[in-house]
Specification:
This protein is of the alpha+beta class. Helix content is about 30%, strand content about 30%. It has a 4-stranded mixed beta sheet with strand order 1-2-4-3, covered by helices on one side. Helix 1 runs parallel beside helix 2.
C-alpha cells in the first residue's frame, strides 16, 4: 500500500472533487492520498463523494492559513 499527495489548492468547487476522483481511479484499494486544498467546501464535498463511491476519510486537518488536508483511503470501487 502506498501513500500519495494531491495538490488541489487554489481550486474552487467542484475541481477539488474532480481532481480527487481522477487521481483515485488510478490507485489500488488500500492506498491513501492526502488531498491538499483551500476551498472550505471540500470538507463536505470530498467526504460525500467518498461515501457514494466506497472510499474512506481517514483524517481531516485545517491549518491556520486556511489550507486543508483530507486523507482518503481508496476503497474497492475506485471509480
Amino acid at each position: 500500500m502506498s501513500h500519495h499527495q494531491l495538490d488541489a489548492r487554489r481550486m474552487l468547487c467542484p475541481m477539488p472533487v474532480i481532481r480527487t476522483q481522477n487521481f483515485v481511479v488510478k490507485l489500488p484499494p488500500g492506498d491513501t492520498v492526502d488531498v491538499l486544498c483551500t476551498d472550505p467546501g471540500a470538507l463536505h464535498d470530498i467526504p460525500a463523494w467518498c461515501r457514494i463511491h466506497g472510499h474512506e476519510i481517514i483524517n481531516t486537518q485545517e491549518q491556520q492559513d486556511g489550507e486543508l488536508t483530507i486523507t482518503v483511503r481508496v476503497g474497492a470501487d475506485s471509480s
